Amino acid sequence: MMRLLKKNKEEVLSWKDIKLSQLQEIHTLPEYEDKIDLMVNVLSILLDKDPYDIENMLVTDIFKEYDKWTFLQEPPKEELIPIIKHNGKRYGIIELDKMSLGQYGDVEEYLSEGNIFDNIHRVLSVLYLPVKKYNPFNGKYELEDYTPSIEREEMFKEMTMDVIYPTILFFYHIVNNFLTDFQHSLIEKKEKELKKMISLEEEQLEKLKKDNEKKLEENGI
Known about the structure:
The protein is an alpha+beta fold. The protein has helices at residues 20-27, 35-46, 51-55, 59-67, 101-112, 120-127, 150-157, 161-218; strands spanning 83-86, 89-93, 128-134, 141-143.
């Protein structure tokens, strides 16, 4: 019986083959004048190998390996992913209009510290909280109360970009716009409180003035 030989299919890589931590590390690389230097350092991160090992590869093999990662130049479409599962545990997206002042402050701080991409795992740790109740029939869920968590931050760094990237793109503009609106609402609230305080002070001063005038009149002055 003749044995059919199967051709080895060319390995096709995608966003599920790269973690957020790897992309963040690539993002910190300097600009290289020589493209080969860039390729060596990028591949050392993607393949988790020492740059020296990559340098010892044939130039043709370096180019061939690098070509497998050309999808990195084409970001995926933005998409809201309400629930993310990791190690059997669900994490659900918060409702932005119900964001607490503590959550707002943390997100604002993370966004203000350098490049947004460097701290995106920290932002995601605020936006996604552990699910404490989940209804599999209608997809509704309840979240645990927010507390900052380094463990949750590190978890997002190790998640693959097929899940993380669409969410990052979806929230990039929304979060920025929301934070701006949230900040404006806080300013307006403070302004209203200040006006109210000024109004009360004016009323108190007016009352004090009338009381003094009354006393003066009573004393014949």
